[in-house]
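Quick log. Single chain, no ligands specified.
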Amino acid sequence: MLPRSPWSGMLAGLVGGLIAAGAMSLTHKALAEKKPLAEAGDDATVKTADAIMRTVLRQSLPEKKKPLAGTLVHYAFGGVMGALYGGLAEVVPRAAAGFGLPFGAALWLGAHVITVPALGLAEPPTRQPLSGEAQELGLHLLYGAVTEFVRRLLRGGAW
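-> predicted structure:
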């Protein structure tokens, strides 16, 4: 095992978070092909990208750029959250207990259930179909586990 370093942990968490965001996206796409969920309008990542565009550049996000912008927001958020988690896991090793599943659950609760609806970026989970919310929880658990797997792989951690 490598010596503890918050910066190295953050870098490992960043890489893990980016890979995990990709795994989450691929799984979501595969699940949507089997059983599409009805989605009205832009998702939270696209709304976030549009808000950034309006604030920084004082213009709306063009329709043709929305898929790319939403993807960039998704990966940026996944990378940043992974970096924070990786740094925390170096300082407080107990944070990595449960192989990233508690991290994924906390992210689902904090971001998907509380923050995104509070910012008006999506309807609250109580107004969504249970199957869709179960899928979201599962995707966030996958994100947490993949982030932790990559973090441990890069940091030489115990399995």
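DSSP finds five helices and no strands in the chain.
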